[in-house]
Records
---
Amino acid sequence: MKTILFFGDSLTAGYGLPTAQAYPSLIQQKLQDEGHDYTVINAGISGDTTASGLYRLDKWLSGPVDIFVLALGANDGLRGIPARETSQNLQQIIDKVKHKHPEAQIILSGMEIPDIVPGRYAAEFRALFRELAIRNNVSFVPFLLEGVAGMRHLNLPDGVHPNAEGQKLLARHTWAVLEDLLKKEL
């Protein structure tokens, strides 16, 4: 049995929802339905930034990791943490995963912040994920919240966290990339 570790924030944790409705659980179900022998571990913690993720990473790398899904950065963007700092933290996470589990496949989930944010920050923030994916030759989900962000009917009343229907889209975006990795293993 192989392991997929989802390492993220409230989006991964499924904030405000039963665990079974969080997108990592939906991916687990899809894997079972398709006959893949994988266990999904949801290491999502609400409020996590890339810095706090880096801080807690070692604990999660002590076990087996065949595929590592890195879905951090949304809280950095919401807090206006400099894009360079977010990029450095994500790079350190990727480096640690590669060092501890050199055979593991990595999927980086991109984040974006609305273009209504003044200045260059939104563009820099969006670009940092794509640049990291290219530099590290890892699989890439361009924008985890594609089609969900800003859509009232797909979010909880807070307007920020996906509801059960929104989580299904997060699962679909992630599955599209994960499925390619699984095909390569066959």
---
Amino acid sequence: MEELWIVKEFEKVAEVMPERALNLIKKDPDLLKEIVISAYLDGIISLGKAAEVLGVTREELIEEFKKRGIPIRAPDREDVLSEVDVITCL
């Protein structure tokens, strides 16, 4: 892709202006979803965090992942703690 340089430069600008870059990404729900799924697949975020960022339940995200053939990792410590937070808020 000949304009890949734009993406690389965006990464640099995002380091300096993270909130602004994040706001731009959040304006495109499909882009945000792909970024979150990529982060989940790379092990950067948990399933619970991915669901939280996307504004869906864990169950809804699991269904989405199943439709896409994305493997579900076993819950980690972060997932368990996030579930406890949700339960204690109820």
